[in-house]
Structures are given as C-alpha cells and as structure tokens.
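Hi, here's the filled form for the chain we discussed.

Project: internal
Contact: R.S.
Residues: 540
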Amino acid sequence: MTRILTFALIVLALGFGFSWLADRPGVLSIVWQGQLIEMSLMVAASIIAALVAAVMLVWWVVNAVWTSPNAARRYFRARKRDRGYQALSTGLIAAGAGNAILARKMTARTQGLLNADQEPLIHLLDAQADLIEGKYDEARRKFEAMARDPETRELGLRGLYIEARRQGAYEAAQQYAEDAAEKAPYLPWAAQATLENRCRNGQWDDAIRLLDQQKAASVIERGEAERLKAVLLTAKAGEKLESDPIGAREDAKHALKLAKSLVPAALIAARSYLREDNLRKAATVLEPVWKTDPHPQIAELYVRARSGDTAIDRLKRAERLESLKPNNIESLFAVAQAALDAKEFAKARAKAEAAARIEPRESIFLLMADIEEAETGDQGRVRYWMAQALRAPRDPAWVADGVVSEKWLPISPVTGRLDAFEWKAPFGQLEGPVEDLTIENAIAAAPARAEPEPVAKTIVVEAAPEPRAEPKPVPAAPIEVAPAVSVPKEKKPATIEAPAETNAADEKAEAVPFFGGAPDDPGVKKPGVEAEPKTRLKLF
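And the returned structure, exactly as it came back:
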C-alpha cells in the first residue's frame, strides 16, 4: 500500500511539473564546441527525465547481473529452509499423534535440511520419536543434552520432569522441577510442582516465598495468589497453635485479611483467643465469617466457647447466631440442638422442622429422632425418623478428590493439590437420595403418638391377678399350725367357722397369698411357731 501511494505521488509531481513548464514557455540555448543548440524548456525537461529513467534501468540490469549468484544461492537456501521447517512441523504433529514411523521419517528429513545447532526443535522431535518408539534411555540422554544448553534448558528440564513422573521417580522429578523453578520461577509447571512439594514437607515459609515470586512474575492472578497465600498461612498457623498460640493467631488473622470467608483460619484465631479466656475477641473473629459463610464448626465453637455455661446460656448464644444469619439451615440447626440440650422440646422441634424445609439432611432427621426420644420416648416415631435419615442426602463434609476428611487440610492427600478441600456433600454409592424428601410429607406420614392414659389403665387391670390367688390353699395354714400349737379344743371351731360367716368381699380382703417354696425346699423357720414333735410323720 505504501509503495502504491509513493508511486502515485511521484506521477502527480511529474505531471504538475510538466504542466507548470507548459504554462511558462521558453527557449533553452546551449553552445558546446562552437555549436549552438536551441530547444524549448519542455523538450529539455523530457530529455532529462528520459536520461534519468535510462540510467536507472541500466543500473538495475547491471546490479541484477552482478548479484545474481548470491540471489540464486539465497533462493535455494530459503527453499531448503522452508522444506526443512515444513518437515519439522509435520514431524511434530506426527509425534503428537503417536505416528512413530512418520515422526522418524520427518526427523531424518529435517536433520538433512536444517542445521541442528541453529534449530533446537530438531532435538525435541528426535527425543519425541524415541519416546514413541519406547527408547526411553535415548530420549532421556537427549533431554539431558538439551538441559545443558542454555537455550533449551527449560525444555530439557520439562522433558526430564515428565519422563521421571512417568517412571514413578517422584524424587527425581521434584529435583528437576526445583532446578527449573530456581532459574525460571515464571514457569507454571515448575512452580506448581515445587509449591506442592514444599507443602507436603511442611515448608510453609518457603512455599509462601515461592508464591510471592509467582505473583511478582504474573504467573498467577492476584486473587488466586491471595487465596493460596491465605491457605498456606492457615496451615502454618494450625501447626504451631499448640506451641505458639499468639503467632498462630497472627498468621490466622493475616489469612482472614486475604480471604475473609476462610473458615479454618477463623477457627484457629478463635481457639487462640479462647485459650486466653477472651470470649469477646473470639466472637469478634467468628461472627463476620459466620455472616459470610455459615459453617457448623463455627456454630459449635461459638456455642460451646465456655465450658462452664449452662444449656440455657448455650441456647442464647445459638439464638445470637440465628439473629446474625436468619433463615439459614446452619443457624436453625444450631438453635435446635441447643434447645434440645435445654429441654425446650417445642422450640427444638420447630427449628429442626424449619431447617428440614430449607434443605433435608441426614443430621436433621437424626436430630428429630433425638427430640422424639427425649420428649416422648415413643420408639416407633424414633425409628421412623431414623429411617427418614437413611433416605435423606448426606451432610456436607470436607471433600477433596473424592476423599472425605474429618478436618480441613491444606493439600489433597491424593494429588497434593493446594486448596483442594471444599465443604460440600460427598458422593455416595448412589447418585442421589432414594426419594425426594420434604418435611411436610415426613410429618404427615409419621406414626401417631402413643397416649399414656390407656397404657396406665391396662397396667392397673393386669397388675392384680386376683383369680390366681383364690385357688391357693389358704386354710392349710391353720390345719398345719393347729396340732403344733397348744390351743384348747373349744377355740378350734371358732377359727373354722369365722371364714364361713364372712362375706365374699371380706374373703378377698383377708386372703393372704401363699409364698411357699418348692416341695424339696426346707424353707425358713418361722419365729412364732414351736418345733414339731419328732414322732410326727412328715410327708415332705
């Protein structure tokens, strides 16, 4: 485009010049060697322009002839280079696709067309071809040669790192990553591998330093860098909470400044304050995080912050959390638990049902079972709520790469990835609950409560087995005792006739149950009875 504009401007300038001369006619006279030459200015200008064009044409022809050997050489060299790069591109594509035959063929062609010292990608293609063919030792030697060259050092270390991990030599792979991160912290793979290794070894300060280098090199975004740094500070604080509570608290508070909703950092800072019996500052740390991200561990620590509190005090603290985050499942669940401990069953049941309306969970139905057992003791309804818990979705937990942990960890135990744990419902054996549960349907399908009055009446009726007491031989006692005790004979009919004259009601009132033993049991000697004569015949 520039050349076209330049050519147009030159043509316009020439046209303007010739038109200007045409408007101002004149005669040009030249005397040369006694000859007078006269011509108009227009003719003279045309001759000069023609001479300039002729000179330029002659110069171009002479220059082309003079430089033709070099031009021909450059042309063939460029053509050879283009063919070499075309073969290199085809070979790299074949290596990536796993075509070993084509990759090896293109490697040989590239080495013949290009100079390996000037094009490092030839070494990469050669190493990739060896890997496809299974020549791992050859490939490793070529990667090592590339690592010794400053121009291909990073590429060689990358190849050695991948090959070491493929063979399971994780220590060697980590060493390659350390070397690459030391010289080039802007490499994401090297920095990430080094960061994960330092986290696994508990080198939190070194990991934070490396993360700052990555942030300065713009390898990761600012928000992500601050989040990861907060995780590292939280892990560091958790390790030294027992030995240095104050230092752990400072690290945890720094982490909360970087990530305001990081629950583990808030828990560590609050526990540090609670070790000093400073409930006010512990609540100051927990309440903002609770407003942002309600968590059951925060609720448990907040409600049971002081061991000497009564159940009513714990209920008041749970209601304080509910006022900070109303209509939240965690707030309602915390109040329901505290109300159950305080024996306020109506409030506990109402809060538990409200939490179940928001999100049915296993723990909520188990809490309903606890409330039912503590309030009524109806085992039928208790078993019903426990059955509902079996069909309900699981409670959230700390999950990372399919692993469920009881507590938060900074890295994944499976992959070593930093900040991998999330608070979410773990995957069960089934993809979802057996059925969609709602608290209204569950309450409607619950069995009726057992009434205590009918149960008490049946117990009273069955507790007095009067017909069983009548057939027992009550008169047997005076028959056995009469011969043993020296009583006048005239009193004997009186003792026999007295029961005959009494009414049926009196007989029931005076009836004494028989507590005799087995036939072979000698029994206990009665204190008011004299010893029987030895000559008396005993049947038993």
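Let me know if anything looks off before we file it.
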